């Protein structure tokens, strides 16, 4: 009987428009979390790491980086849960990062000229994915969805195997970005 009542309650909900860009935004945030968490590990095992600064204790780097990584992961979860405040922050942050990506094109050119292709990873993320996230999250259907959806509905829509794929994309992107930033 409880299952039937919940099915009726779900059927009574108005049809929400299909949002756009949520997967990309969540993968971006979880990628930042993965990168932030992976940097201390990378510096610990890489003797030539550029993050080896005099007086910087690797344990201190873990203590600082891992809570920051948790903040990025939490923020991605807030986007996945349909939090309207997180949508606004995501749009502004990715817009600023898009501008930073355009500015970094000069550095990319200089790095490629000397044979360092790792900055291409960062540039692709900032020049292609950040503006795409902004564009997709600013679509009217997405704004309407964020205003009308409950966290439970949002997690139901963006759950299951979807989460697994987004986590995978976030980890791959975060690890690649770590290598790019350390080279």
TrEMBL record:
It comes from the Bacteria. The keyword Membrane applies. The chain crosses the membrane at residues 55-75, 87-106, 118-138, 159-180. Keywords: Membrane, Transmembrane, Transmembrane helix. The keyword Transmembrane applies. This is Uncharacterized protein.
């Amino acid at each position: 009987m409880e299952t039937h009542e919940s099915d009726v309650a779900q059927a009574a909900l108005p049809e929400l428009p299909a949002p756009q860009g949520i997967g990309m935004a969540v993968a971006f945030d979880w990628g930042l979390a993965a990168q932030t968490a992976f940097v201390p590990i990378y510096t610990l095992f890489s003797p030539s790491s550029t993050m080896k600064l005099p007086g910087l204790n690797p344990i201190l780097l873990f203590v600082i980086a891992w809570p920051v990584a948790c903040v990025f992961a939490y923020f991605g979860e807030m986007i996945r849960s349909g939090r309207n405040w997180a949508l606004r922050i995501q749009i502004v942050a990715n817009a600023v990062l898009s501008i930073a990506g355009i500015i970094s094109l000069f550095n990319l050119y200089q790095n490629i000229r000397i044979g360092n292709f790792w900055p291409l990873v960062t540039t692709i993320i900032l020049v292609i994915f950040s503006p795409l996230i902004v564009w997709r999250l600013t679509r009217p259907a997405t704004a309407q969805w964020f205003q009308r959806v409950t966290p439970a509905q949002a997690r139901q829509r963006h759950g299951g195997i979807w989460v697994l794929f987004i986590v995978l994309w976030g980890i791959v992107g975060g690890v690649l970005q770590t290598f790019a930033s350390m080279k």
